[in-house]
Write a structure and sequence with these properties.
Length: 87
Amino acid sequence: MTVTVELSPEMERFIREKLGCGEFHSPDDMMRAALQRMFEEEAQMARTEALLREAEESGEYIELNDAVWASMEREAFAEVERRKATP
């Protein structure tokens, strides 16, 4: 598929810089890389949203105040020490 896109002077300059330093072989390569990154970012966003929905639906709400964070930190450090002690 062939697509024609109007670019601002800043975008044209950006493309020329990327091509000039050898980061991309052609504007087509650069556009493919940009689109691939968009696909990956959208997929990551969908995974994050799914995890957030799962967390919201998973159970009771717990307010994460300083005391809760301190407790979680103590538990984490204790678990690290336990794992270090277990051969």
